Amino acid sequence: MTLTSPAPEDPSQKDAAPDTTQPYAIRLPAVDGAPAVDVRVATPQGERPPGGWPVLVLLEGEAFFDTAAQVAGRLLRRSAKTRVEAMMTAGVSLSGVADRVAAYAFTPGPQGQAPEPRGAALLARLATEVLPQLAALGADLEQAVLMGHSMSGLFVLEARAAGAPFARYAAISPSIWWNPAVVAAQPESANLLVAVGAREEMEGLPPAHLARRMVSNARDLEARGASLRVLEDEDHGSTPYAALPAVLRFAAPY
C-alpha cells in the first residue's frame, strides 16, 4: 500500500474558501483476484470532530470524486440551508482492470456475461483495507456510506445484502436487471437511498432498454423500505450528478 500525504500548505491560500480540502491518495496493488485500487481522499478544512468525519465512499471515483468533493465543500458553506454537513469523501477507482463489469459483479449475469464475477473480492478489499485506511485519516466508520452507479450501483445493493460494514448505502440507477434477485435479498431498513432518472424508463425507448425496468426496479426497492428519488428530466448518465445533493444529505444528516 502507498499513501501520499497532502502537499505543503501554500501561504498564498491562507484566505482560501473554508471548503478547501486536502487530498490524499492511497494505492493498493492487485492481490488474490482482487483488482488494484486507487483511492483519492478529501478531508474538510477545520477541526476534526471527536469521533471523526462521516465518510462518503464513491465507487468509480475517476468519474465522481472530483465533482462530489467540490459539491460537498460548496454546500457546506451554507449548511443550515443545504442541510449538508462536513464529511470526508473518498473516490475508489479500479486500476488496470480489463473487465470492469466482472469486477463489480457478484453473479455471472443473465446471459453469463461475467463467468468469473469478482465483486466479492472487491468488497473484501474495501472492508479490510480501504475502510481501515480511511479511519486512520480521520473517518468515522460508523458513519460510512457507500455510493455506486449502474453496475457499481448494483454492487452497492449486493454489498448491503451481504452485510457489508457500511452504515448507509446509496445506489444510483442500479443495474438490477443483471441480478433481479438482489431486490428480495435486501434487508428491510431505511439505510438505503436509491435514485434513478425518470427518462431511464419512458415511452419511446427501445424494448431492450425498457426490459431493464430501471424505474420499476427502483420502486420495488422503495417498497422494501428504501428512500427513492425519481429525478425528472434525468437519464442514466446524468442521474449520478443530479443526485449528489441528496446523496450528501443522506451521507451526513444535518
UniProtKB/TrEMBL annotation:
Please name the GO terms that the record assigns under molecular function. hydrolase activity, acting on ester bonds
Disordered: where is this region? 1-21
User: Keywords on this record?
Assistant: Hydrolase
Family annotation (InterPro entries): AB_hydrolase_fold, Esterase-like, Siderophore_Hydrolase_D
Q: Which family does it belong to?
A: Belongs to the esterase D family.
Under the heading PANTHER family, the entry gives:
SIDEROPHORE TRIACETYLFUSARININE C ESTERASE, SIDEROPHORE-DEGRADING ESTERASE (EUROFUNG)
> What protein name does the entry list?
Alpha/beta hydrolase
Q: What organism does the UniProt record list as the source? A: Brevundimonas diminuta (Pseudomonas diminuta)
